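User: Quick sanity check before I run a bigger batch. Here is a single chain. Can you write out its predicted 3D structure?
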Amino acid sequence: MLHNLPAGNWDAGERGIACHPDRVDEFREGVRTAISYAKQLNVKQLNCLVGIVPAGVSLDTAHRTAVGQPEVSPPMR
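Assistant: Done. Predicted structure follows.
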């Protein structure tokens, strides 16, 4: 079984928020919630939907934002 991390507003075309520099706090809270659910359901894998680079954000900034996200919380073990 696999559990997704926050995907944002799917109906509005978002496909993840990990690369959105202005939504880091939202993403981090979603990671904490996902880990809590995963532990309760004994899910061993989480899937990160990185997202589409937002308008006005450089590819480099989006990449640095997304790559910096793994430090959000400790492993689920």
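The first strand starts at residue 2 and ends at 4.

User: Great, the batch can go ahead then.
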